[in-house]
Amino acid sequence: MPVTDAPLTEAFYYILLALRKPKHGYGVIQEVEELTNGRVQLGAGTLYGALQSLEKRGWIEIYSADESSRKKKEYIITSLGEKAFHKELERLKELVGNGRLMEEDKNG
């Protein structure tokens, strides 16, 4: 699936960020919690649904899998996923930059 201009959900954004290095699902949950100081806590259902969706889009892929257990898959971001991530990062930078106009106006 091609990269679109649609904003990423916060869950997708953090999952892609966490998968810059190979990780299994529980590792993703832990890293997202750590990156957000506990603000974002992904439940297993949310995570695995998101992983399936990201994999269908071609934004992540299975890095390694233990054939005896579906729970022992490691995922990694693909180049297409990196493109989607960086597109979102640029969108967020624009939002923050434009939001700073409010601060500038307040401070005169």
Summary keywords:
single chain; 108 residues; Arc Repressor Mutant, subunit A
Topology:
Blueprint: H1 10-18, E1 23-24, H2 25-35, H3 44-57, E2 60-65, E3 73-77, H4 79-107
Antiparallel strand pairs: 1-3, 2-3
Description of the structure:
The protein has one domain: Arc Repressor Mutant, subunit A, CATH 1.10.10. The mean pLDDT is 91. A hairpin with a 7-residue loop joins strand 2 and strand 3. It has 4 helices and 3 strands; from the N terminus they run αβααββα. Strands 1-3-2 form a 3-stranded antiparallel β-sheet. The protein is 58% helix and 12% strand. It is of the alpha+beta class and 108 residues long. The longest helix is centred in the C-terminal third of the chain and has 29 residues.
Distance between the termini: 46 Å
Determine the strand fraction and express it as a percent band.
5-15%
Largest sheet: 3 strands, antiparallel
Question: How do the helices and strands follow one another from N- to C-terminus?
Answer: HEHHEEH
Task: Catalogue the unreliable spans.
Answer: none
How big is the Rg?
16 Å
The structural class is alpha+beta
CA-based shape: elongated
CATH topology title: Arc Repressor Mutant, subunit A
Mean pLDDT across residues: 91
What is the CATH homology-level superfamily? Winged helix-like DNA-binding domain superfamily/Winged helix DNA-binding domain
CATH class: Mainly Alpha
* Number of DSSP helical runs: 4
CATH architecture: Orthogonal Bundle
Q: How many beta-strand runs?
A: 3
The percent range for helix content is 55-70%
Domain unit count: 1
How do the strands line up in the largest sheet?
1-3-2
